[in-house]
Automatic annotation (TrEMBL):
Native organism: Merluccius polli (Benguela hake)
Name of the protein in its database record: Hydroxycarboxylic acid receptor 2
Chain spans, region Disordered: 45-73
InterPro entries to which the protein is assigned, alphabetical: HCARs (IPR051893)
UniProt feature, compositional bias: Polar residues: 60-73
Keywords assigned: G-protein coupled receptor, Membrane, Receptor, Transducer, Transmembrane, Transmembrane helix
Length: 73
């Protein structure tokens, strides 16, 4: 019975370890996930790939431009 109890607790430990390691594995293996995490933590975009996976549509890029009347055209 003690062996069964040990196996049970080992299984629980492995389950928690899996839950803790999954985000790290996703972070280092999926560039889109990395960029989403960095954006959520306000760290900026990861630049280890040459392409931008978080491109905004043109309409959003134009709407973020300042329309202050003192801007030089």
């Amino acid at each position: 019975m003690e062996n069964l109890n040990t196996v049970f607790y080992m299984t629980i430990c492995l389950t928690y370890l899996n839950s803790a390691l999954d985000p790290l594995i996703y972070y280092y293996s999926i560039p889109t996930f990395k960029n989403m995490c960095r954006r959520a933590l306000h760290l900026g975009r990861a630049s280890d790939t040459g392409e931008d996976t978080t491109q905004r549509p043109k309409s959003q890029e134009q709407s973020t431009h300042s329309t202050n009347r003192y801007d030089i055209p």
